[in-house]
Amino acid sequence: MIESLQQADSQALPDRVIEFSDNTFVVDAALIGELLRVPATSVPILMREGRITSVCERGAGEDEGEFRLTFFYRSHRARLITDSAGRLLRRSAVDFGGRSIPDAPHRAAG
User: Which of 22, 25, 64, 85 is the most exposed place for a label (fewest CB within 10 A)?
Assistant: First the structure.
């Protein structure tokens, strides 16, 4: 299942969901939980345990000034595209079901 919301969709995206603090992105656990289908209260715990992992990519070329934040949990992948001001441009979620997704994003740091 793939879900995708953009500004043109019937559900408007919040003006600002992502915050930048000390060269770090701060994302509301409710948004991550919604996309990964876990309770928001479980998100920080799962992240500390290394069960929810993430990758941040900086846009280049035509995507200059944008960032792609990707979160992984079990067979779910959630993506958030934000501009340099932290405004959420696009979001999507994929449930790969029984198919495996790459191992590298699932390795806990450290």
Answer: 22
